[in-house]
Design a protein that fits this description.
13 strands, globular, alpha/beta, Trna Endonuclease, Chain: A, domain 1, DUF4143, 5-stranded parallel β-sheet, Rossmann fold, 5-stranded mixed β-sheet, 17% strand
């Protein structure tokens, strides 16, 4: 058996090193570079994790690492079923048997995709970090590799690179219309193209495989993504005993994107529908959905932990393309989609985010905090043409400003604002420009 497994592993290594790298759209995902740490590439299914690994391989080759010094090994292979942690050494042995000169003279780059199917894989990775001159990347589906598991299993020996569906810039790059100049140098034609593509992006989302697919086919593809996450990453993984309540929760959450969500109110709704499920179970289910990267929740920005926990959370799907699948209003979702896009972009940029509720009852969409860039209060609005809308958005920002004195004030809008004066302390920014900031 060992000889059979060794032969398969050797052949996979040879084939992977001989295979040309596929064409891909360059991703802007931040990949930490810290010596002595493995990098765990995580994110929702179909968001592009394997593509990011291939991108990193391409970058290392351009930096001068020889092709034989790069190992990409996927454990998602039925021939490797039943592989044990003790068998993982065979991968390294065969790699160095093929290229013995590398072990002493060359720092190598090792990519282990879906290594989580092998029990006790983390012991193997930690030992490689201690004994080999290697840069190590691991990746896997969210069913087997979660943030908290990386932290627990690797005991501080791994850092995360979180892969989202395409950002707006990546979407434009994929469509071959990424602007090469800053916004102030855009021509009228440039601006028209970018703003038209932004509306498409908000409506259809940024999953790489779904880009360019229209109508019913796209909707069915995105629904299939959600179904796989629910079945494999939640129901099967955690042995969920009330999948009907879980699906009801998903419909409620994704159908109310950028809205508030209260477990207490949802529990009462379920009870009225005849579901018997405990509140603690619903809290657990919500955590599962976040772990699977299907959605993220946003807490109230406050120093009081009690206020943070008792106030409703806001819900944002991982992609704006999910919003129309569950919306029941029959209206356009542009406002919710734009707010979701801004939230996801803030997350990509590494901000700590909360929402603000003032003592006067006004709400600001985001308080975004960064140690180097400072704090910013951000309000998102599709159209500022109506005076009542302008006054509401401006009033909320000005009302929150005294509580967060060091925060800059920004109003992000989809449409160019009318020729009226705004308070000078509020920066008015077009979404098409803000989403493309570096």
């Amino acid at each position: 058996m060992n000889g059979y497994l060794r032969g398969i592993i050797r052949q996979k290594i040879v084939d992977a090193q001989a295979a040309p790298l596929p064409e891909f759209t360059f991703r802007d995902t931040r990949v930490p570079v810290v010596k002595g740490k493995a990098i765990a590439v995580i994110g929702m299914r179909r968001s592009g994790k394997t593509t990011l690994l291939k991108q990193i391989i391409s970058e290392r080759l351009k930096q001068g690492v020889p092709r034989e010094g790069v190992l990409y090994f996927s454990f998602e292979d039925e021939r490797l079923a039943g592989m044990k942690s003790s068998d993982l050494d065979i991968v390294i042995e065969e790699f160095y048997r093929l290229h013995p000169q590398l072990r002493v003279h060359q720092r190598v780059v090792l990519f282990f995709d879906e290594i989580q199917v092998v029990p006790d894989w983390e012991l193997f990775i930690r030992r490689l970090l201690d004994t080999e001159n290697a840069e190590i990347f691991i990746s896997g589906s969210s069913a087997r590799l979660l943030s908290r598991e990386v932290a627990t299993s690797m005991r501080g020996r791994a850092l995360e690179a979180v892969v989202y569906p395409f950002s707006f810039r990546e979407y434009l790059r994929h469509e071959k219309v990424e602007p090469s100049k800053p916004a102030e140098e855009w021509t009228t034609s440039d601006r028209s193209t970018i703003e038209s593509e932004l509306r498409n992006y908000l409506a259809f989302g940024g999953f790489p495989e779904a880009t360019g697919i229209k109508g019913r086919d796209r909707q069915e593809l995105l629904r299939a993504y959600i179904d796989v996450v629910l079945l494999r990453d939640v129901v099967e993984r955690y042995a969920v005993t009330n999948p009907a309540a879980l699906r009801w929760m998903v419909r409620q959450l994704l159908g109310n994107a950028a809205g508030s969500f209260s477990i207490n109110r949802f529990h009462a709704d379920l009870k009225s529908q005849g579901f018997s499920v405990a509140k603690d179970t619903l809290h657990t289910y919500l955590g599962y959905l976040e772990d699977s990267f299907l959605l993220q929740t946003l807490f109230l920005a406050t120093d009081s932990e009690r206020r943070r926990m008792v106030n409703p959370r806001k819900i944002y799907p991982v992609d704006t393309g999910f919003i129309p699948l569950f919306d029941r209003s029959g209206k356009e979702n542009t406002g919710h989609a734009l707010e979701t896009a801004v939230f996801l972009e803030l997350s990509r940029r590494g901000y700590a985010i909360g929402y603000v509720h003032t003592a006067s009852g006004h709400e600001v969409d985001f308080l975004a905090r960064d140690l180097t860039k400072g704090d910013e209060l951000i309000q998102v609005c599709t159209d500022l043409t109506q005076s009542t809308t302008r006054e509401r958005e401006v009033r909320a920002l000005l009302d929150a400003a005294p509580e967060f004195r060091n925060a800059r004030l920004r109003l992000i809008t989809l449409e160019p604002p009318p020729g009226v004066e705004f308070p000078p302390e509020i920066a008015i920014t077009l979404a098409s420009e803000w989403l493309l900031l570096d």
